[in-house]
Structure formats: structure tokens, C-alpha cells
Design brief:
This protein is mainly alpha-helical. It has helices at 3-6, 18-25, 28-31, 38-53, 55-76, 95-107, 136-155, and strands at residues 87-90, 114-115, 125-129.
Length: 159
């Protein structure tokens, strides 16, 4: 379980039966890992309490993830995925489209970083994340920013 994606905390945990956890602990990738610092563990435990005690936040997070994927699918011309995560990659068509997207995200006051990560879907892509506290207005600003970037791209004869 990735604490960063599901709880907003650093680190992670291996969950499962004792036999499966022991099998992971015996594996070579696990051998070089370090236990998370106490503050990260406390943050993850506090987040788990929120998940347990405030189910409405989970419902809002799921609704926001569903809306995020619908917005990006419509923009990218992709089909909806069966598993929804609160994080979505958006691959720009080219460098100019990336600049258009960055400009429109800034104009809309949205923090959508352009990342370069070797395990990602492309050498560089935008990483869009939502949580339970994002509003419908936040998601509409995202949709509007994507539309504005597409219009700029189309004026150049692309897309």
C-alpha cells in the first residue's frame, strides 16, 4: 500500500497474510529498505483514523477521481479505465502543447507539475492529483485549462 497515494503520508506498507508478508520481507528488494520515520508513521495512522471516522471524505475523493479521469479521458480521447486512482498522467503531444498546458494550468491557478520519471508513460508528462478537498470548481478549472490549451494547439494546426 502506498501511503502517498491513499493516505497523503510518506512511505508504505506491505499488507496481507503473515505468509505473504514474510515472503516479501525475505525478498531482495525489501532487504535494503528502511523503516519509515516515526512522524511519517504517525501521519499514516492519523490518516487511517480519518478514513475510518469520516467516510464522506472517501466518497468525495472517489467522486473527484472519477471526475478527474472523465475530464482527462475527454481531453486525451481515451476510454475510461476500470480502476480509478486519484492520480492521472497526461502526456502532451509535443513541446509546444506542454508549454500551452503549463501556461493554462498557471492561469487557472492549478498546480499540475510536469514530471520526468523513467517509469512513467512518457519521458515527460503532467501528473494530476485530486483529493477529497478539491471542489467541483477546481475540476471545472482543470477542464477549462485543458480546453484552452487544445484551442492554442489547434490554432497552430496541431491536435
Amino acid at each position: 500500500m502506498s501511503f502517498s497515494k491513499c493516505l497523503g503520508a510518506a512511505g508504505g506498507a506491505v499488507l496481507g497474510s503473515r505468509a505473504n508478508v514474510e515472503r516479501v520481507r525475505a525478498s531482495s528488494p525489501y532487504a535494503c529498505t528502511t523503516a519509515p520515520p516515526p512522524a511519517s508513521t504517525a501521519a499514516a495512522l492519523a490518516a487511517l483514523r480519518v478514513v475510518r471516522d469520516e467516510p464522506e471524505r472517501r466518497a468525495r475523493a472517489l467522486a473527484n477521481a472519477t471526475r478527474l479521469h472523465a475530464i482527462v479521458d475527454a481531453h486525451a480521447g481515451e476510454e475510461r479505465r476500470s480502476v480509478l486512482f486519484p492520480v492521472r498522467a497526461l502526456v502532451p503531444r509535443d513541446a509546444e502543447h506542454a508549454r500551452d498546458l503549463e501556461r493554462e494550468f498557471q492561469r487557472a491557478e492549478l498546480f499540475v507539475p510536469l514530471v520526468r520519471y523513467p517509469g512513467g508513460p512518457s519521458p515527460s508528462y503532467f501528473r494530476i492529483a485530486v483529493g477529497s478537498e478539491h471542489t467541483a470548481n477546481d475540476l471545472e478549472r482543470l477542464a477549462d485549462a485543458l480546453d484552452a490549451a487544445d484551442r492554442s494547439d489547434q490554432r497552430r494546426g496541431n491536435g
